[in-house]
Amino acid sequence: MYRLLEENNPNNPLLQPLLTEKVILGEMRSPGDDSKEFCYSCGVKLDPKTARWQVLRFMFERPSQRRQSAPSEGRPHICFSCSALAFASPLKVTDESVVLMLEPGDSSVNFEVKKLKMKDYLKMLTNKELHLSAGRYLILNSNEDKTNTGDLASQKLGQLQYAMVKIAKIFSAEVLADFKFSLMSQGSEQIILKSRHLIFIKGLMDSYGQQIVNAGKEINMTLGDAVRYIQQDLPYLADYTLTKVANVFNKYQLEQIREIYWQTLQNDLKARGDNMDSDKQLAPKAKLYIDIAALTGITYAFAQSLEITAKQANKGEDYVEREVSKLIEKVDDAVAFCYYATLGDETKRSVQARLYNNPESYFIYVQAKNLLNRLELKSREMEDEKGKKYLNLFADDILNIYQYFAANGYSQEKEWKDLTYQLKLSLYTRFPELVRKQKSTGEK
Ligand SMILES: [Zn+2]
């Protein structure tokens, strides 16, 4: 049985007995774990003459224990307050329950108001979804996420990963941003779940139509892989992982979630000063994220332009996809990239491309524009006849930008590989039909 205290009091982690005014101190007892002299749950001393309660199924998941100093299995004794608590508390930690703790996210502003809001929210959720809540705790029943053959998602995905996708599924993005979620593990350890991870997982699940269990048949292990990437703040890998398997995708929503991720990442960086588990890797990861976003914008313009040229050649869909893939595969090398970008137009001396400011690419558009400004490649933003904004790009820009990155932050081989590898994946997420094609030909 586990004790989940409503108020934190690290010096006194055990609850006081239900009816007493005396402080209970640690006492001596005879060695061994097979006696009526102590509570098997909390360790408090019991009088063997009056010890009556033995653990039952609702106190311990496995009430019958083979204790080290006992000759056979039996039910150990438990104190009165532990048994009463087991009756009274709805918080039962089993393999099938996920126990979460919720706290207001930003403790500086309107803490009390947020606390009340949170309690209301939990009550509403409990009534609506039939989960259980107690104080600021919530138990999610994982029993509903299983396959027809009885495989539990919480076991296959891992308890932490399952909790993250379940929370992402149940809660709205506003709640994920407002509240701080912690998972209470079976070892009573508190694992803080980062808002930016939960929000990004939710965004990917919604945009790619991902379920925890696919049509009752199999646990969505690919989603589990994506979650593991997100936990390491590798969003491009997570995004790409789902691009490969998803049958649907909402490109407008995806672009929004990529921007929101960037905002939450920046907020977390700012808050890092008073954050105990500050991650030293966060700043370089944030830089990598935004640099790749800008590079995606620049190279995406050329890939789109090539796609249009290839289509005009009238050699079929396969031809177009092959040519675009070839170009994307060259993103690690500026010269080769520019060479492939000239496809079908050998006379073209300077390759040009346009990046339009569309709803499905507004985030990379802004980042590409910021990058051009930073490199003093200004006055590239134009308007077409219809008044739509676009960035006018040349092959020379690619060469200059790559040179700039090679000299600024990506001079080591590993850094360069990380940058261009993730850039490649990021570009593929913009052309999902290409990776699905690769997958189906790979399976033949
Ligand atoms: Zn006890």
Please describe what this structure looks like.
The chain is α+β, with helices and mostly antiparallel strands and 444 residues long. It has three domains: 1-89, no CATH class; 97-246, no CATH class; 282-443, no CATH class. The protein contains 16 helices and ten strands. The strands form three sheets. A five-stranded antiparallel beta sheet has the order 2-3-1-4-5. A three-stranded antiparallel beta sheet has the order 8-10-9. Strands 6-7 form a two-stranded antiparallel sheet. It is elongated and about 95 Å long. Residues 39, 41-42, 44, 78-79, 81-82 line the site of zinc ion. Zinc ion is lined by residues 39, 41-42, 44, 78-79, 81-82.
